[in-house]
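Thread: quick sanity check before group meeting

JM: Hey all, I'm pulling together slides for Thursday and realized we never actually wrote out the predicted structure for the chain we discussed last week. Dropping the sequence here so it's in one place. If anyone has concerns about the input, flag it before I start.
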Amino acid sequence: MPPPPPSQTLRTQAPASASAPAAASGAIAGVDAGAYRLEDQAGHLLRRAHQRHTALFQEIMGTLDLTPTQFAALARIREFGETTQNLLGRQTAMDPATIQGVVQRLVARGFVERRPDPADRRVMVLSLTVAGTRIAREAITRAREITHATLEPLAPAERAVFVELLRKLS
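JM (edit): ok, ran it. Output follows.
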């Protein structure tokens, strides 16, 4: 049986007089500063949320057979148009080795093409092929479903706040 949701495991808020030392020590409000409970830890909760999102991604992307990094690359190229591999890596928060492998796989699948930059033939420019444009469009439609399913447990107002808080953390 899976553990109860974190919202059901948090302890009740300490009285105001007891919360000052907890706040000073960096403890989360409502959590006993002396206890270490895994289900109260940000990293653990982020990992569990990521696992849930990843399972939804795999289920909904399904037959498109794209990894999250491949999807991110396709979505960015579709959004910004032609780009260099270096810039694409920065736009998707991938290190050079990772983006290189992602691009190689997308080229091999016929979704991305590489060609020399006319202004500097040492630089390769990436763009979507017709097949890449088609799969990116379908993947983005599915990605909206994934986002909706990921955030579904939250109230509409909580969704916007949650996404904004994630932006602050990343």
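AS: nice. Strands lie at 83-84, 112-117, 120-128. The chain has two domains: 1-40, 41-170.
JM: adding both to the slides.
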